[in-house]
Design brief:
The protein is of the alpha/beta class. It contains 12 helices and 12 strands. The model has no long low-confidence stretch (mean pLDDT 96).
Length: 362
């Protein structure tokens, strides 16, 4: 018997994350307790703002910090998260979704944080967001989260839900693949060293504070390649633009999805996270009746890969299965305007059932 909180915690540690900084909040409390046992270093913050400020310090010093929270904690972290994004500091935030608004129902799951995350970085800049739908995803995507944070020098979010991380299930841990530890060895660069000068991969070489070779400088304001505030210059604006390009132009390196395509199917169910299990069962119900349907489980929620758009565009009718009021992922792709091609199977306050999804598809 195991839950995804323990699987994710173990996965990020085995992947190279080496400090957990937390402030307990339901339904992310299990991450807090498990991390005390597994991380080489653990800090209990007095509040969420302190937590992410400390994460920035640890990241700048060459650590890979992790925290876990829910929407109220994430709301408090937003300003500093933007700072970490601009400073290009690797870190991983585990967000456990619960029913809102405000404190809502802390022990009821939901998928309601997605649109907040879509615009959480001021200016509409993208941030990698992975959403596991099962225990195997929780293991592999946590590894990808650490890898992506270090590879692209960026904060990364693992977007979970109360049911996934708190519900215990019988699970064979031997089915989990071996994980490769991520290292932060500085990349080769063209001299002289400039802390924000990027090469063809659009990611600057990272040297931590306290290294004995080069001056490390981190800046959350608009800055040039040297990390100095140079408002409005071509170099500094290009550096800010690069924050988007490094993630969007290389999106296929960290874009994950699962497609169960049935030949001849006109209908597609699109889902993510905790709604995936009900969607899989709905597909079985529909196919058992002799009808054709395909299923797309999106695992890298943001940025949205062109591959996702291409798959969706290849079907006549698309049904989005999500545990929120209006279908947030659907609105991110199609907007708020109704479309005869697009349907939504949604639920608020409880989990979607396979039969509810089947009813909407048909």
């Amino acid at each position: 018997m195991i839950d995804a909180s323990r699987i994710i915690t173990e996965a990020v540690v085995q992947s190279g994350a080496n400090v957990f900084i937390g402030y307990p909040i339901t339904p992310s409390n299990l991450f807090y307790s498990y991390s005390k046992e597994r991380f080489p270093e653990f800090l209990a913050g007095p509040d969420e703002i302190s937590v992410i400020q400390w994460m920035c310090g640890y990241s700048a010093a060459g650590k890979i910090p992790v925290t876990a929270t829910a929407f109220p904690g994430l709301a408090l972290m937003t300003e500093t998260l933007n700072m970490a994004y601009m400073m290009e500091l690797p870190m991983v935030l585990i967000i456990t979704q619960r029913l809102g608004p405000s404190t809502g129902s802390a022990t009821t799951g939901a998928q309601g944080d997605l649109k907040f995350l879509d615009g959480i970085i001021s200016g509409g800049f993208p941030m990698p967001i992975f959403s596991p739908s099962n225990f195997n995803d929780a293991w592999t995507l946590s590894n990808e989260a650490v890898k992506t944070a270090v590879k692209f020098r960026t904060p990364v979010i693992i977007l979970t839900s109360k049911e996934l991380v708190m519900t215990q299930k019988s699970f064979d841990i031997n089915s989990l693949e071996d994980l490769k530890k991520v290292t932060q060895k500085p990349k080769a660069f063209e001299a002289p060293y400039q802390p924000y000068k990027a090469g063809d991969d659009m990611v600057p070489t990272f040297y931590p504070l306290g290294n004995n070779e080069y001056q490390a400088r981190f800046n959350a304001s608009t800055h040039d390649n040297d990390g100095l505030i140079k408002k409005g210059t071509t170099e500094s604006l290009a550096n800010t633009w690069r924050l988007r390009e490094k993630l969007e132009k290389r999106i296929d390196e960290y874009s994950f999805f699962e497609l169960d395509a049935e030949d001849g199917a006109d209908n597609l169910i699109v889902t993510w996270g905790v709604s995936a299990d009900a969607s899989k069962d709905a597909v079985k119900l529909i196919r058992n009746k002799g009808e054709k349907v395909s299923l797309l489980i999106v695992k890298t929620i943001l940025p949205i890969s062109q591959q996702i758009f291409d798959i969706i565009d290849s079907y006549k009718t698309v049904t989005f299965a999500e545990e929120n009021m209006k279908g947030m992922f659907k609105e991110m792709i199609f907007g708020k305007r109704n479309n005869s091609k697009v349907k939504t199977a949604t639920k608020f306050g409880s989990m979607l059932t396979p039969s509810e999804i089947e009813e909407i598809v048909n």
